[in-house]
Inverse folding.
DNA sequence: ATGCCGATGTCCT
DNA sequence: GGACATCGGCATC
């Protein structure tokens, strides 16, 4: 049956269960349209960051800085920040404004605009590294911290549902990557990946 | 396959 | 000055 693509609406983002949203984002299509150029990829890896009580979150303890301001934004807005001085990491903001829930998109399976992704990344060929890992996918889609605070209901960055659903046995849940310093919260099962997908990041947790 | 390292913005001590 | 939601390259096993 033919399924049309539909932009995710406010009701999708405006929910309390950030873990459920992170899981449901698997299979959705992340799209950027900058200067008339459309690039997109299917989301195959996500991580939930669960607000003020989450030691791995930039908002732990209610901390609020210039960098993390957009983490406190309205549901369906974008939080992009610079990691390790050079990588721009893209997060979807969920729950109500001032409740700093976010989902980090960690890997995509490229769909549209692959030629443009190669230009943006400077890679010679479209191997799995093109959109594997949060820094790589943001670069491939042309996203930078200048886009932080944008709305996913805009026509520049948004997420579509084309009807694809992964079954429970196609999804693996693990601890998050690169958050060792978050003490006991480093072990929380907040990472969601599509089992066996070659674009899923392979970095050590 | 595993590990170390450099690059480097933002926040913290 | 050190830590950090990373990545690619190079050394070593």
């Amino acid at each position: 049956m033919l399924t049309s693509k539909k932009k995710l609406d406010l009701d999708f983002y405006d929910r309390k269960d950030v873990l459920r949203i992170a899981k449901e984002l698997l299979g959705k299509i992340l799209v950027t349209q900058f200067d008339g150029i459309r690039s997109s990829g299917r989301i195959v890896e996500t991580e939930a960051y669960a607000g003020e009580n989450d030691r791995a979150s930039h908002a732990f303890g209610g901390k609020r800085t210039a960098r993390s301001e957009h983490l406190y934004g309205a549901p369906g807005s974008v939080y992009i920040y610079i990691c390790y001085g050079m990588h721009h990491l893209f997060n979807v903001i969920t729950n109500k404004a001032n409740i700093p829930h976010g989902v980090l998109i960690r890997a995509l399976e490229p769909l549209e605009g692959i030629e443009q992704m190669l230009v943006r990344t400077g890679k010679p060929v479209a191997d799995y590294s093109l959109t594997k890992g949060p820094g790589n996918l943001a670069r491939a889609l042309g996203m930078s911290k200048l886009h932080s605070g944008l709305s996913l209901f805009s026509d520049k960055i948004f997420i579509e549902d084309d009807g694809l659903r992964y079954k429970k046995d196609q999804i693996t849940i693990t601890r998050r990557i690169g958050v060792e310093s978050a003490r006991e919260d480093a072990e929380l099962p907040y990472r969601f990946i599509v089992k066996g997908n070659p674009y899923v990041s392979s970095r050590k947790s």
Notes: The beta strands of chain A are 6-7, 29-34, 37-50, 78-83, 87-94, 101-112, 157-161, 171-174, 191-194. Chain A is about 15% helix and 30% strand. The longest helix of chain A spans residues 114-121. The first strand of chain A starts at residue 6 and ends at 7.
